[in-house]
Write the structure tokens for this entry.
Amino acid sequence: MSIRIDDIILDDDATKAAISGTSGNLRLGGNGVDGDALLFPSDGDLNDDNSATFHLDGNGGNLWMGGNGKDGDLVISPSEASNNHDVNTATFHFDGNGGNLWMGGNGKDGDLVIFPSDASSNHDINTATFHFDGNGGNLWMGGNGKDGDLVIFPGDASSNHDINTATFHFDGNGGNLWMGGNGKDGDLVIFPGDASSNHDINTATFHFDGNGGNLWMGGNGKDGDLVIFPSNASSNHDINTATFHFDGNGGNLWMGGNGKDGDLVIFPSDAIDNHDINTATFHFDGNGGNLWMGGNGKDGDLVIFPSDASSNHDINTATFHFDGNGGNLWMGGNGKDGDLVIFPSDASDNHDINTATFHFDGNGGNLWMGGNGKDGDLVIFPSDASDNHDINTATFHFDGNGGNLWMGGNGTDGDIVLFPGSATNNHDTSQATIHMDANAGDITLSNADCAEDFTIDETAIAVPGSVMAIGKAGLLQASNKAYDKRVVGIISGAGDYKPGLVLDKQIGMENRSPIALMGKVYCLVTAEHNPIEVGDLLTSSDLPGHAMKAGDSQKAFGAVIGKALAPLDKGMGLIPVLVALQ
């Protein structure tokens, strides 16, 4: 059966409703009347609007479809479709049961384009504020004076317009992505194409962990790299032009290059400007090749712990400690040998200590330099040197090949100053015991005499200040004869006078003592026969180890040991003597 309708007027007033075959339009409602079209299934009740499966609502401007046991789909086919009931050939399909919208395909570009109310044309895609691009696979939002946000709420949100309760927020104006919060863990998890499940987090190759605050990349056979390019890079897939590269396989961080200065700058929490490099407490300087740490009220320390340390914040258990405040480098200890070992570029093994050219030995307390074909020199320059590789301008030069020490010159006074352990200031030359003064050409010894070590007879009683004579075996004994021509001198070291220079020092030899050859020394003396006055010549006496006044000049010839520098009226004592063997 067929019905042809040319024109049907449903009311005397043709403006209320009409079906026009000529114009091909169906016009319903208007003029104070709600124009609805309701279609009912065969088992529906024409008087019950709720039993309709298709409802065009003129007042509400809505289209209600399906329900009441029916699948409400809207399926639109292109003009060249051969069958408008074959859903696979449709280019637009609202699927009520599946809750999906299918668009495009079958040679058509499925775009969803939404315009703001002030758009002058709803076909000019550049003025749209929302554009799902089927061919490009892109979603374009905002622009044209609109803020393109994508805001997603959890099922328990009380309002889907309160942005603070959203768990997912793409912020077009701010250029930010906000995820999680409000009791939800905001993770971003991306899987490779060969993942068997996109909900098994262990197989993901990219995981932003909101709760843990971590970014996990790579693994599962993938190389987790983070590569960032400058704005002028011609390709964002040419890793050699990147200025920032976290290399997951190599475990390296590459920064800078390609005309960029690769710096890593870290600021304390109280810094007011995180772009003012002078307030940073940690600065890796790519151009300068320096690491700057501390300052601005912070102590810049570098502390490294061994694997068996129970705490990596207990500085006493560290095996490596750069101390910014103290200006010290502490290495080793805690059962570790703190060595600093440097190898030349042609070394084949940087763990073979025998091929090193520079070795600070913590256990041995030694510094080993040179060897292995290298000249081990230590060269130090003054602050005003214009070139710290011009050896002629150095003020301090240990020459490994020549075996020489060069000091001073170039306007600098090259002195060697040695201090005793009791000195309180190692820059006060008056406290030094030995001072080689290059400008004056002097060697200053603060101690009193020049001595030479002799072997003492093991049966002899000999203490500092004793007068000694040569025995038959060539060993020294305490003198016990007046005017003894075998007398050799006085054992140095008694009283306040110590030897300034000791000759023939044989390390490890026993029963040896320094005998004063010249200078001042304290001597044991006796005044039992004659009182001693300042300036008297002294010789050996019958009292073992003691000197006396040389009253007989003929007997004294060849037996004088020195001249008294202090008197002794009677008895025995210890007086200073100027050594002068005659």
Summary: Residues 1-5 have pLDDT under 50 and may be disordered. The helical segments are 553-556. The two ends are 160 Å apart (CA to CA).
